[in-house]
Design goal:
With about 140 residues, the chain is an alpha/beta fold. It has a single domain, classed as Rossmann fold. It is built from four helices and five strands; from the N terminus they run E-H-E-H-E-H-E-H-E. Strand 1, helix 1 and strand 2 form a beta-alpha-beta unit. Helix 3 runs parallel beside helix 4. The protein is globular.
Length: about 140
């Protein structure tokens, strides 16, 4: 049975560092590069929350495909490594934890954008995943 590693990726350099770490640390694993599509994310240019239409969902999946292509563009993948991509819609930490619970994931490797303060060394997403996932979670800084 192959070891399956989930690598949540949001397009940040922190997530890319975690992806690179997973590739180096688990060269013969099945790696699932995962993006949680956050329907509640509002950017400064948005007038409000987006309408959750099929068109919106298609646009988000296309953006995730671009994110995955960018992530894969700069890495070297061992021939024994299998990389798959997947997305789900929802609050990122909750979506990541639910994905772990619903699939055959053995490990999560993720980046953290946390402030690095002694009383709060992890970002909120990483902290919630560490607390709630029922598999080992490696946070890469």
């Amino acid at each position: 049975m192959s070891h399956t590693v989930l690598v949540p990726h949001d397009g940040s350099s922190h997530a890319q560092t975690a992806f690179e770490y997973a590739l180096e640390t688990f060269p013969d694993a099945r790696i699932v590069l995962f993006h949680a599509i956050d329907p509640f994310e509002v950017t400064p240019n948005d007038a409000g929350l987006p309408r959750l239409t099929e068109e919106w969902h298609d646009e988000q999946r296309d953006s995730a495909d671009d994110l995955f292509a960018d992530a894969l563009e700069t890495v070297t993948v061992d021939e024994d490594t299998t990389i798959e991509t997947d997305t789900a819609v929802g609050n990122p930490p909750q979506t990541i934890v639910a994905y772990v619970a619903d699939t055959d994931v053995d490990q999560v490797v993720m980046g953290s954008r946390g402030p690095g303060r002694p009383n709060r060394p992890l970002g909120s997403t990483a902290e919630l995943v560490v607390r709630r996932a029922d598999v080992p979670v490696t946070v890469v800084r």
